Amino acid sequence: MSKATVVIAYILLIAGIATAQPGERPAYALVVHGGAGAISKDMPDSIEANYRAGLNAALDAGEAVLASGGAAEDAVVAAIVVLENDPLFNAGRGAVLNAEGAAELDVSLMRGSDKACGAAAAIRTVKNPITLARAIMERSPHVFFAAEGAERFAEASGLEIVDPEYFVTERRREAWRRREAEDAKGTVGAVALDRDGNLAAGTSTGGTSFKTPGRVGDSPVIGAGTYADNATCAVSSTGHGELFIRNVVAFRIAALMAFANLSLDDAANEVVRKLLAPGDGGVIAVDARGNVATPFNTEGMFRGAAIAGNERTIAIWNP
Amino acid sequence: MSKATVVIAYILLIAGIATAQPGERPAYALVVHGGAGAISKDMPDSIEANYRAGLNAALDAGEAVLASGGAAEDAVVAAIVVLENDPLFNAGRGAVLNAEGAAELDVSLMRGSDKACGAAAAIRTVKNPITLARAIMERSPHVFFAAEGAERFAEASGLEIVDPEYFVTERRREAWRRREAEDAKGTVGAVALDRDGNLAAGTSTGGTSFKTPGRVGDSPVIGAGTYADNATCAVSSTGHGELFIRNVVAFRIAALMAFANLSLDDAANEVVRKLLAPGDGGVIAVDARGNVATPFNTEGMFRGAAIAGNERTIAIWNP
Lengths: 319, 319
Description:
The structure is a homodimer of 319-residue chains.
Chain A: H1 3-14, E1 29-37, H2 45-67, H3 72-85, E2 105-111, E3 117-123, H4 129-139, E4 144-146, H5 147-156, H6 170-177, E5 188-193, E6 199-205, E7 226-228, E8 233-239, H7 241-246, H8 249-260, H9 264-275, E9 281-287, E10 292-293, E11 300-307, E12 313-317
């Protein structure tokens, strides 16, 4: 490596962004996020370490799938299950509570090879919502289910059903009792490129705290919260869901690549830094060449990337 | 008018498509649809007349708003309310029934001036779902509600609530008893351009007959079933909802205009005739210059247009 290359590689390492060289497609790539928002840099070291450990565990689970030749959607599901089970993140157990003090979860999954997808909104009893998204994608002629109907489909599919109280942690209950509106940060998502060159994306969330029951955010909306198409990219969004719905954020990035010939990085930045406003949120994205983009316009975004042949990166703030 | 112009005008009239001349923006434009699908040309004249009368009444209601200087979204709501109340169409009263014999309704509305929107899925008790979409758009910080939460928002907003049996007509009950799967045709929608140059789009449906309870189609999905942005166009979709979700049909048309510089007609045809397959469905669309496109790849699509300065058109099949 030339000195300049070393310097550039070091800058990229510092930036927490692993970027494939043009033309060199990595064998696989996995990016996860744990939400974007007003994440204070004054966070205690012990809490920051827990977030980093959670992201790392999700990358471990997803990378194990990809390294052994598994499918992108299986890696996305494996990574998101870890984040759903981790009470730190606003998805699955530890989700924020709605106006009635209950967790109501939104989720979606999409596969880039055939644009198959599965999504569910306002669910209260399915232990791992991302597994419901996969069951809908694989076993139903439909792609999107709401509320009770989604839960009944989960039961019929043999997924693990839990009491709604399972999702409620003491920390979230306490915040709810104190009427502390929590930042929407903590939505989780993953995007992956597998050894076969296929893409997938998934997103799972508890939405916004104190939301009106039945409110659906962008996470289960294909095109807004999640999108994947081998021809362009896989995207998972996190942020102010209403704005992501009306701007069709995830598909807009794919459309800028397909119709305006932008690179993944330019397309993702065009949407997150130019169309959206500071504080709105961020996305993680990967294209079929293994290029990765993780722009956000908030204070921070919990994120991590495991790209074959590159050092693993975990980051929260901008450098 | 030259003889050639007369001939062209006559062909356009026959085709049931009213097209503004380049540069001449009509004062307003309204297009409605009553669904695309396998609509047999052998339909009895009396039934065909009823469909035409329904579309005509919807155009009357919407055009009255536009002619008097009202807003595009008010015209869209006025037109769709008429179609929801007409038992012939698969929206509101007369919706098809799900696997349990109940009507479950999906709806959305979007305004092009600020991309504000409102949507609801799997509702069973709101007499005119499109009025719920408007209430969500105007009065909630959220844009999308599912099932019971949506119904509670409707009640709190003072909308008319009905017994779920209100929606069930004898004709639909009989079809359900006989296990006759009905074509998804009959979804309704409207797009409008008002005197101020603002666009709006809305879509309302009972979805597919014998659907699994909780199934959500494309109609309430902003970007798939409905999209409106003054910078490009307003679109309402009808057809195989799952395909419209995964292809983000409504926004894709807008994106082809914005990012690939296609005309409305070319963008709509690119999606409906090239990306989608025969039998999938159709769209109605209007742009900010008053150009209208109504492509479909099914046997027929119930549709009508009222464009200032043009003869009103109602059509079902291709000429």
